[in-house]
Specification:
- The structure is a homodimer of 240-residue chains.
- Chain A has 240 residues and is α/β, with parallel strands linked by helices.
- Chain A has 2 domains: 67 residues, Hypothetical PUA domain-like, domain 1 (Ribosomal Protein L25, Chain P), CATH 2.40.240.20; 157 residues, Alpha/beta knot (3-Layer(aba) Sandwich).
- The first copy, chain A, contains 6 helices and 12 strands.
- In chain A, 40% of the residues are buried.
- Chains A and B meet through helix 2 and helix 6 of A and helix 2 and helix 6 of B.
- Chains A, B: This is Ribosomal RNA small subunit methyltransferase E.
């Protein structure tokens, strides 16, 4: 009865629901993992919780699973976005993986004045987020948004969403979050070179932004992303 | 006058102090970075703060730097150890890098019942810690200890040092740290498979240990290390 493989699927999940597999899923389950009819896996789709399912048909290019029973309720993350300036490939992958593990609701790559990346492979980053959710036992996969300039993101910022802005140079301790209320938030992590002076001035002037320090040492951007999500989850999220 | 290269050295640092370079340092500075006599670098040795230094002699197999002036005071991290069960190579490297960035005083790889690693490359991990300190602007390099069995480490645990033990199954929220006092601490992160039942029972019975939860999602061990150091620094370290 053990079912260690966890897969994110798009289909609705309900008892007896048949789930057709695409070629990639069939390759993974039947060629890589060598599952046979009757084998069991865990599924989630971000809406219906986690389900135990059974292999009904196994083929080279497709197959079918059948959902049997719900094994865990759907759990949504708190409403926190992680906005970050993409770095080199491996560290960008890392940030996306960690954001999914730590319960970010959305992941938004942003272009800043000192960001190197001109473009991202959104589909690849989305696959990283999905794999992280599969491996960490989550029932939710955060959406990875398209790369946007920071100025555009701030220009149509959603009403009521607050911003925790991680700044090395002018910021208060993370305990400032303790006086804040829960609700819709976003975390913004700058690129390796920090924010430019005009960016910093704009951020500090935003009424919905709080500048927060991440300690006396300089952190790499990937470390800062994990530390900031940890502090936010502890103060305002679902870790308390 | 800009000096972006930062190097950890073993020698004492004082005004006018000449510093002989070994072959590896000379190769890095003069062949890789193409520095010439008169070029400036920043140095630290973990005791005397950060110093501006000048290249006095540059050779293929050696050379000399001369310390000119102190540019930052020595800053020691709080007295917190990070104990962790080594993982696959890349994630172990990552934990060591992040521990140095986040201000761990010592890094102790431990063998647990479910640890895969039989041995570690201590010299390679120590080099990672040094590089992280060089890059993050620190003046201190945490020592990486030899791999030891967890039972042996707990068997001669230093008197007065408390232990934050990160456990998925039976633990209180991180806010339990808020009632604790500062001083000598260690953080213990388990391997991917968690602690064994006997290990968990022993840890929970230790009078100096506090079991702390890292939220409702399952975190990979490398994520857990960064999150735990963040929470500790925020509650009991030098981030407040």
């Amino acid at each position: 009865m053990s079912a260690k493989i966890r897969l994110h699927v798009e289909h609705p999940l309900a008892e007896g629901q048949p789930l057709p597999l695409d070629r990639e899923q069939a390759h993974y389950l039947f060629t890589v993992m060598r599952l046979e009819p009757g084998a069991r896996v865990l599924l989630f789709n971000g809406r219906d919780g986690e389900w135990l399912a059974e292999v009904s048909e196994a083929g080279r290019r497709g197959g079918t699973l059948t959902a049997l029973a719900r094994t865990a309720p759907q759990r949504m993350p708190p409403d926190v976005w992680l906005c970050f300036a993409p770095l080199k490939k491996a560290r960008t992958d890392f940030i996306v993986e960690k954001a999914a593990e730590l319960g970010a609701a959305r992941i938004l790559p942003v272009q800043t004045d000192f960001t190197n990346a001109e473009r991202i492979r959104r589909d690849r980053l989305q696959a990283h987020a999905r794999e992280a959710a599969e491996q960490c036992g989550g029932t939710y996969v955060p959406e990875v948004a398209e790369l946007r300039p920071l100025a555009a993101l701030l220009g149509d910022w959603p009403r009521g969403r607050r911003l925790m802005f991680c700044d090395e140079s002018r910021a208060g301790p993370a305990s400032v979050l303790e006086g804040e209320s829960r609700g819709a938030w976003a975390i913004l992590i700058g690129p390796e070179g920090g924010f430019s002076q005009p960016e910093r001035a704009r951020l500090l002037a935003l009424p919905f932004a709080r500048a927060v320090s991440l300690g006396p040492r300089i952190l790499r951007a990937d470390t800062a992303a994990v530390a900031a999500l940890t502090l936010w989850q502890q103060a305002l999220g679902d870790w308390a």
